[in-house]
């Protein structure tokens, strides 16, 4: 049963970069779904702001087409009503044109939020003009997209720039992984049940695997990606956030700073990673398709499209339990999951022929969000006591039935949280900086050693060396499959 939709307070949401790819593919289709669910109040207004010189109607047409393309099945009348709420102003972030016009469209007495869906080089200019032209005050909120910097120095500089104009409580740094239903369920499972938390430590957990596998290549983002690589693009933010949620201590309350304080402690407790514990990969060309280097148009590129690593968290809870992380493009399947692999039972009363069996709690982020707990039972039938593992499987789609349609996707949920003023699922400035402080030396080490990624076949599970990373510890990655 999906909880009842409660409309948020009336708001003016300005989307800088409102004509861009992210706005058209994710933000506006997501807002349309919230509109359909009844969460958007009558008085809500959405204003696109971008460089293109177009009128309100042209923007409304653009967004209608975008929702038709990316928004899934919908009622055309509802879409007409939704786009009727949209307005548009041509604004140059770097210039002074359009700002007074935009200011004239904002209303007093409603929540005011500004979504920076533009490149990070414009964040400073936007923040300055929002204050300079009097569009934003101390109650306004700004939402900033990833990437939040490309190293510690640039992330710090961005934080400094934003904080010149806004308080930390006004800044919502998006990591859309945190908006996923299952990711929040991770906290519900851990801290809402008595069953798991007593076992959630090095005494009972053998290791934890986090996999975020994609089948896509670098697509149209080659120029950006080749400068970033999997480490900056995925590990520093998404995988680090998943690691924090799985490993953190129970916060005292489900409140933004309580949760974020605990996440920060996890990042700070991470050991520096020895380079032998990291495998970088780059997908190769095959007969039917070009490889990474052709995709990024750089035949000498040494950027990784895959990374696997073994991490250690030095604290009382986790000392001795390794965390294995991997992510990559052009892999066998699009599958993201966290697997908590428990230790063997201390003694088998069934004898060696029964084999060893381990409980594995798997949290699936995509596809088919849900959770599975592998439990050992007796193989049914005659023939003595043979043990097999069976899954206790909970798929959200099955559990919720038709209501699953109404579960908001990550962007929808996060935008509604901005309007509600709830920062729990957004990264705090010090958290982002701590993640970069941990990431930087790893990348600097690769550069200093002239590290070259290992090639891997498109459609595989990554380079052989990644398999060896676990194999040499007597462990095994879970299959990457849907
Ligand atoms: P895009 O290039 O498609 O769109 C950029 C938008 O910014 C356009 O609307 C453009 O008009 C506007 N713009 C550019 N310069 C401007 C200026 N000087 N003044 C006002 N507006 C200006 O980019 P995108 O893919 O939509 O990405 C936007 C941001 O979101 C980037 O920071 C990107 O890294 C991030 N992001 C994008 C995705 C994605 O899937 N596209 C995913 C995660 C994060």
Notable characteristics:
single chain; 482 residues; alpha/beta; six-stranded parallel beta sheet; binds nicotinamide-adenine-dinucleotide
The ordered string of helix (H) and strand (E) elements is EHEHHEHEHEHEHEHHEHEEEEEEHHHEH
Rg, Cα atoms, Å? 24 Å
> What integer is the average pLDDT?
93
Present as ligands are: nicotinamide-adenine-dinucleotide
Distance from first to last alpha carbon? 26 Å
Helix coverage percent:
25-40%
Q: What is the beta-strand fraction?
A: 15-25%
- Shape category: globular
Uncertain stretches of 5 or more adjacent residues: none
Number of helices: 14
Counting DSSP E segments of at least 2 residues, the number of strands comes to: 15
Strand order of the largest sheet: 14-13-12-11-7-10-9-8-15
| Main beta sheet strand tally, sense and closure | 9 strands, mixed
Structural class: alpha/beta
């Amino acid at each position: 049963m999906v909880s009842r939709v409660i409309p948020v307070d009336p708001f003016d949401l300005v989307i800088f970069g409102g004509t861009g790819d992210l706005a058209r593919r994710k933000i506006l289709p997501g807002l349309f779904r919230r509109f359909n669910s009844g969460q958007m109040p009558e008085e809500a207004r959405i204003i696109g702001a971008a460089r293109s010189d177009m009128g309100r109607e042209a923007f409304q047409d653009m967004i209608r087409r975008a929702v038709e393309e990316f928004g899934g099945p919908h009622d055309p009348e509802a879409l007409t009503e939704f786009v009727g709420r949209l307005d548009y102003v041509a604004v140059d972030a770097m210039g002074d044109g359009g700002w007074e016009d935009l200011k004239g469209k904002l209303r007093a007495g409603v929540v005011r939020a500004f979504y920076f869906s533009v490149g990070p080089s414009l964040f400073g200019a936007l923040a300055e003009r929002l204050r300079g032209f009097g569009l934003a005050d101390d109650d306004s909120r700004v939402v900033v997209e990833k990437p939040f910097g490309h190293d510690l120095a640039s992330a710090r500089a961005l934080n400094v720039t934003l904080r010149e104009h806004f308080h930390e409580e006004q800044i919502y740094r998006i990591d859309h992984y945190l908006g996923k239903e299952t990711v929040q369920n991770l906290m519900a499972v851990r801290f809402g049940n008595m069953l798991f938390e007593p076992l959630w430590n090095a005494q009972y957990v053998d290791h934890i695997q986090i996999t975020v596998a994609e089948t896509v290549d670098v697509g149209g983002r080659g120029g950006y990606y080749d400068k970033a690589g999997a480490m900056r693009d995925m590990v520093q933010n998404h995988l680090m956030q998943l690691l924090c949620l799985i490993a953190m201590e129970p916060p005292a309350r489900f409140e933004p700073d309580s949760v974020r304080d605990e996440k920060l402690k996890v990042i700070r407790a991470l050991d520096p990673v020895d380079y032998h514990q990291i495998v970088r990969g780059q997908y190769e060309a095959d007969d039917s398709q070009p490889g990474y280097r052709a995709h990024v148009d750089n035949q000498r590129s040494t950027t990784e499209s895959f990374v696997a690593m073994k991490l250690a968290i030095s604290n009382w809870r986790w000392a001795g339990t390794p965390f294995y992380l991997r992510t990559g493009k052009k892999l066998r399947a699009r599958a993201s999951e966290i697997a908590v692999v428990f230790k063997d039972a201390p003694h088998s009363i069934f004898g060696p022929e029964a084999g060893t069996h381990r409980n594995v709690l798997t949290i699936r982020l995509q596809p088919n969000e849900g959770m599975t707990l592998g439990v050992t039972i007796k193989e049914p039938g005659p023939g003595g006591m043979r043990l097999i593992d069976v899954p206790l499987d909970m798929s959200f789609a099955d559990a919720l039935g038709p209501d699953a349609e109404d579960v908001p996707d990550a962007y929808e949920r996060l935008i509604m949280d901005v309007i509600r003023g709830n920062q729990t699922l957004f990264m705090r400035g010090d958290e982002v900086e701590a993640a970069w402080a941990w990431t930087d030396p790893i990348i600097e080490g690769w550069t200093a050693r002239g590290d070259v990624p290992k090639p891997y076949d498109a459609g595989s599970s990554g380079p052989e060396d990644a398999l060896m990373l676990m194999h040499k510890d007597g462990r095994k990655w879970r299959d990457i499959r849907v």
